[in-house]
From TrEMBL:
<protein>
    <submittedName>
        <fullName>Glutathione S-transferase family protein</fullName>
    </submittedName>
</protein>
<dbReference type="GO" id="GO:0016740">
    <property type="term" value="F:transferase activity"/>
</dbReference>
<dbReference type="Pfam" id="PF13410">
    <property type="entry name" value="GST_C_2"/>
</dbReference>
<keyword id="KW-0808">Transferase</keyword>
<dbReference type="InterPro" id="IPR036282">
    <property type="entry name" value="Glutathione-S-Trfase_C_sf"/>
</dbReference>
Length: 101
């Protein structure tokens, strides 16, 4: 994200490919969890994994390529999960986090 936003060098294309691959893994995992009736990445309640991964997904819109099938609209399981995270009591939105209605 830093390389994409601030242009500080590095293999931005390679980093984006790796990020898209990670989003696909996350999407597949949450789609399987949904089939099992689960809402969260691990267990039956929100946990540290959800807290750690939420900003990565939410802010990925800054660098994902929508024309290559990597935008948030191509990750319905992650969007559903993100709505659940946003619905947690006490959740406070930081700047840049989109609303997943």
């Amino acid at each position: 994200r830093r390389a994409a936003l601030f242009g500080d060098g590095g293999d931005v294309a390679g980093l984006c490919r790796a990020g898209v691959a990670a989003l696909r893994i996350m999407e597949d995992h949450m789609a399987r969890r949904r089939l099992d009736g689960a809402t969260w990445f691990v267990g039956d309640a929100p946990g540290i994994v959800d807290v750690m991964l939420f900003p990565s997904f939410a802010l990925s819109r800054d660098w994902v390529s929508h024309d290559r099938g990597a935008g948030h609209e191509f990750h319905p399981a992650l969007r559903r999960w993100a709505r659940a995270v946003r619905g947690l009591p006490g959740f406070v939105t930081m700047p840049g986090i989109p609303d997943y209605n």
